[in-house]
Every structure is written in C-alpha cells, then in structure tokens.
Amino acid sequence: MPNQTHVLHQGNTTGSDPAFVRASTSAAPVPFVPEIRLNMAQDAITLWEATEVARGEIGLPPPFWAFAWAGGVAVARYVLDHPDLVAGRTVLDLAAGSGLVGIAAALAGAASVRAAEIDAYAVAAIGINAAVNAVRVDAALEDVLDGDGAGAEVVLAGDVFYERTMAARFLPFLERARARGALVIVGDPGRAYLPRERFLPLAAYEVPVVADLEDAALKTTTVWKLAPAP
Q1: pTM (2 decimals)?
Q2: What is the full per-residue pLDDT of the chain (230 aa) written as tens digits?
Q3: Contact 157, 187 (CB under 8 A)
Q4: Is 190 part of any domain?
Q5: Is residue 1 in a domain?
Q6: What's the CA gap between 170 and 14, in Å, rounded?
Q7: What is the CB-side half-sphere exposure of residue 125 using CA atoms within 13 A?
Q8: Integer angstrom CA distances of residue 19 from 15, 16, 29, 53, 174
Q9: Degrees (nearest 5) of the Cα angle 65, 68, 71?
C-alpha cells in the first residue's frame, strides 16, 4: 500500500461490514491474475470518503481491501505459477487486504490458509472473496506483528514495506518466522523501505495498478524470498 499506516489502525467491527463491502464493490477477474475474482471498487476516492462517513472517522487509511495492490498481485501470480511452494502446507497471508494472496495459496493447494488483518472491512472482504472463488480462507481480525506467524509453514505478504514505521515492525516479524523455519515471500513494487539486502529476488512482473492509488498504470513488482539471517 502507499504511504499509510493501516496496520496500526484497528477498525471497528460493526455487523454491517459485509453489507458495506458488497454494496461498495463488484466481483471481477483480477488483472494479471484472471484465475481469481475479487470484489473490487471502481472509484478509490469515492469509496474512501464513503468509508469515513460509514465509520464516522476522518483520516482513515485508503480502502486497501477493495483493490488488488501490485505487491499482492505479484505474489498471487507467483504462487499460482509455483504451487509447490504452498501445496499441502499451512499458510499465513499477512496484512491480507482483499485476501488475494491467501486465495491464491488456497487455489494452489495449501492445506490451510489464515489471513491476518486489523480492519473489519478487510476481514469481511476476505470472507466474501474466498466464497466467490470457492475456497476457504480463515480471516482473523488481529495485529500479529509481535509474534512469529503462529506456526505457519509459509508466510506471504504483499506490499508491506511502504512506510518506515511499519517496515520496522514487519521485518522483525518476518525474521522471526524465517528463524523458526518458515518460507517467507513478499511482493514489493519498489517501496522505499524494503531492506533489499535481506531478500533474494524470485521474479519480477509489470503489474497493472489503479492509477488513482499509484503514480503509474504499471508497476515493476518483484517477488522476494527472505534469506537466512547472516
């Protein structure tokens, strides 16, 4: 995501969240990952404003759950093209947003998929999107960054190094997951705070993105694997 601190913002959990998601989005194939359909919004700014009205709060992060962000798209593409990475394994989709990455893992044969988010709209969207794709993804409304991934064999994250403070939390989490033996894969479209020296590149794609939310129509996005600690 762009320069926002959504992981620190714990959204409220009103029962209308699924209804709001359905009313604000429509299902369509994801560009570059057409095997997956997501409920996505047409207009980022309009939905952003509607979310603030619905919650009665100003200054909320963008509705990241309503769009396919470049980092997640790249990871989803890579997982679908390399199902052996997740097949038969337990998977954690970190800062899951729409659930795109977790859905890709489920379609690729993961034994189980858990999606961690801190926004109730995102959790609702994950449930809706998993149903659209006829897979199971267990969405959890919690900040997991003080842990190590709770035993997941594979930790997947799309576009999480977008802000300095958040990078300072994400990297230690990913390092702890890697230290206990998890495979850690992230997608990144050139964000400033990705510590590239800690990662090994696996693939790079030209990913179509929402122009309202990014600075270009295409973003060169790399899929990285966290290397062992030096």
Answers
A1: 0.90
A2: 343 333 333 333 333 589 999 999 999 999 999 999 999 998 877 887 888 888 787 777 778 899 999 999 999 999 999 999 999 999 999 999 999 999 999 999 999 999 999 999 999 999 999 999 999 999 999 999 999 998 899 999 999 998 999 999 999 999 999 999 999 999 999 999 999 999 999 999 999 987 667 778 899 999 999 999 88
A3: yes
A4: yes
A5: no
A6: 27
A7: 33
A8: 8, 5, 21, 15, 34
A9: 110
Query: Locate tokens 């998601």: which residue?
Result: 21
Residues 6+ apart with CB under 8 A from 107: 35, 36, 80, 133, 135
Tell me, what amino acid is at 217? A
What would you report as the CA-atom Rg of the chain, rounded to the nearest whole angstrom?
16
Contact 125, 99 (CB under 8 A): yes
Q: How far is CA 19 from the centre of its chain?
A: 21
Amino acid, res. 179 = A
Within a domain: 136: yes
The candidate with the shortest Cα–Cα distance to 70, out of 175, 221, 190, is 221
Give the domain extent around 184.
6-226
Give residue 193's identity as a one-letter amino acid code. Answer: Y
What's the one-letter identity of residue 160?
V
DSSP, res 87: B
Structure tokens at 227: 């290397």
Closest CA to 36 of 142, 107, 87, 89: 107
In a domain, 149, yes or no: yes
